[in-house]
Design goal:
- Helices cover about 15% and strands about 30% of the residues.
- The protein is α+β, with helices and mostly antiparallel strands.
- It folds into two domains: about 140 residues, Elongation Factor Tu (Ef-tu), domain 3; about 170 residues, 2-Layer Sandwich (Gyrase A, domain 2).
- It has a six-stranded antiparallel barrel. Strands 1-7-10-9-8 form a five-stranded antiparallel sheet, with helices on both faces. A five-stranded antiparallel sheet has the order 3-4-5-2-6.
- The longest helix is centred in the middle third of the chain and has 12 residues.
- The protein is globular and about 60 Å long.
């Protein structure tokens, strides 16, 4: 089945999805430092062409006003990292990823630079990343940029002269906007209310966009965590590590696993195995990202969970240990997968 046709068919799991708690999006507003995010900088005239041959995304034609989601795969098509990519300078591309896998990812990418005129470095000590959300953040961004805010996700908003801070509009699964602020490490934090990390993590999970962390390295083919549905895979670009596996999963209809938004009655952590009551000894999936209810009160948590699609709507319970999972509604539709 062609990819376009496949994506137009909605999965029946959405019929069983429940609404998230009504106070889950209670006025998140402000900024928080993203200490668990890091940046790799690719600098040089060949930086775009080098990354184009390594990632699932078209980097060669990446414009100055746009960012893109991208995956970095092993030869077996398993995700080693996911990146938010953008042009941070005329001959420099920045790759934001989870900080706990940055050293290993930087080392592996560097092995393949060879004769390319591209230098890969960690952005530690150079750049600081902040998560921004809500109306206060939007007002501050509009004042600082002196421009209308872009409405499309993955848009890059310059905040001042070339080479200065940049804000990237991230996908949101709720009415609250999300932004990634990138600025020099020695600049003061944005003058915004403190955004709790619980709120930011909740908004990230609600967005339905996966971020691979150290606990989930090499666990997922991109489609298993909906990377192609969130714009992270370009099927028209040239080869990259694992490309045959990714293409085969897309066009041969062999994929029977997807990532779902779930609520839970207890805390979860990335990398934890999910089981189904019909076959409790056999893992049914894995937690990709998780977040507590922002209020901090005991009760529902949320998670992005990779799982066998057929089990999400099957009779029985999905659990992580003694924690029960229930499907919630993603901000985008899943294609109907083969039985």
């Amino acid at each position: 089945m062609a990819a376009d046709d496949n994506q137009s068919m909605l999965s029946d799991q959405s019929a069983n999805a429940q609404a998230l708690p009504p106070n889950a999006d209670a006025a998140p507003d402000g900024a928080c430092r993203l200490a668990d995010w890091g940046v790799i900088l690719a600098t040089g005239p060949d930086s775009a062409s080098f990354l184009h041959g390594q990632l699932t995304q078209d980097v060669l034609h990446l414009g100055e006003s746009q960012a893109r989601l991208a995956g970095y795969c092993s030869a077996k098509g398993r995700l080693l990292a996911t990146f938010t990519t953008w042009r941070s300078a005329p001959e420099q591309i920045a790759l934001a990823c989870s900080a706990d896998l940055l050293p290993a990812t930087l080392k592996r990418l560097s092995m393949f630079v060879l004769r390319a005129k591209c230098r890969l470095t960690a952005g530690d000590g150079q750049l600081a990343l902040y998560g921004l959300a809500g109306p206060s953040a939007e007002r501050w961004l509009a004042r600082t940029s002196g421009a209308a805010l872009p409405s499309a996700p993955w848009s890059v908003l310059p905040l001042g002269a070339a080479g200065g801070p940049q804000a990237i509009r991230l996908p949101a699964g709720s009415p609250t906007s999300r932004w990634l602020l990138v600025q020099a490490h020695d600049l003061p934090a944005p003058p915004l209310p403190a955004l709790s990390r619980a709120h930011w993590d909740w908004l990230e999970v609600r967005s339905g966009v996966v971020r691979v962390v150290a606990a989930t390295v090499e666990q997922f083919v991109p489609q298993m965590v909906n990377l192609e549905l969130t714009g992270g895979v370009n099927f028209q670009k040239g080869c990259y590590p694992g490309q045959e596996v990714v293409a085969r999963s897309q066009y041969r209809g062999t994929l029977k696993r997807r990532m779902f938004l779930m609520t839970a009655d207890g805390p979860l952590s990335p990398g934890q195995e999910v089981h189904h009551s019909a076959d409790p000894d056999q893992p049914a999936g894995m937690v990709a990202l998780s977040a507590p209810l922002p209020s901090g009160a005991a009760g529902p948590h949320a998670a992005l969970v990779e799982c066998k699609s057929a089990l999400v709507s099957a009779p029985g319970e999905l659990t992580v240990g003694s924690v029960r999972l229930k499907p919630a509604e993603l901000p985008y539709s899943l294609p109907l997968e083969p039985a």
